[in-house]
Amino acid sequence: MKNDLRIKAKIIRNEIENTKNKSRAIQNKVLDFISDYSKGDKIFSYIEKKKEVEISPVFRDFRHLGYKIYVPTYTDQKWRICQYENSDCLGEGPHGIPQPTKINQFYDTPTKASFKEDDIAIVPGLLFTKEGNRLGYGGGTFDIYLQNFKGTKVGICFKEQIVNHLPIEHHDIIMDIVITD
């Protein structure tokens, strides 16, 4: 059932127009949320690939607010977390996912990266509900990362990716807030 939904969701996502402007609107809402929230010092995010909400253009703004940015990266045959530096060059990881090529330190889990309750995770997805349920790409990467994440989980998507209901399994992580255009 989830795989059928993923196929349909990718079709919907690929048909969304004006994604640059819609991404800017989402970026501004995320910045407003973080500015109001601003107690933590770390953001766990992603670097967008084709047709995802563009979030990396505001990484510089996150830094100006005092946050360090962490992103998923694939190395030594597994997904890990690394700090993203402004000067990092990006390469292509599995499934075309952009990732830093210059990495000083890896963390296997958010706990090992010392994320706290005041920190934020910005999470992509194919579909979301307003209640925070999320349909990801099926690899379970973000569900694993967020399993012990104690901070605020922010799902971001285009409004066309909001649905009324999603099938939920025991390992699925619910977002605390979903931000759209």
Name the helix and strand elements from N-terminus to C-terminus, one letter apiece. Answer: HHEHEEEEEEEEHEE
Whole-number count of domains: 1
Mean pLDDT across the residues is 90
Beta-strand residue fraction: 15-25%
The total count of strands amounts to 11
So, the CATH homologous superfamily?
Answer: NagB/RpiA/CoA transferase-like
Alpha-beta classification: alpha/beta
Residue stretches low in confidence (pLDDT < 50, at least 5 long) are none
* Arrangement of strands in the largest sheet: 6-3-2-1-7-10-11
- Termini gap: 27 Å
- Report the sheet with the most strands, covering strand number, pairing sense and barrel closure: 7 strands, mixed
Give the CATH topology: Rossmann fold
Shape descriptor: globular
Give the proportion of residues in helices: 10-25%
Radius of gyration: 15 Å
Provide the CATH architecture: 3-Layer(aba) Sandwich
Number of helices: 4
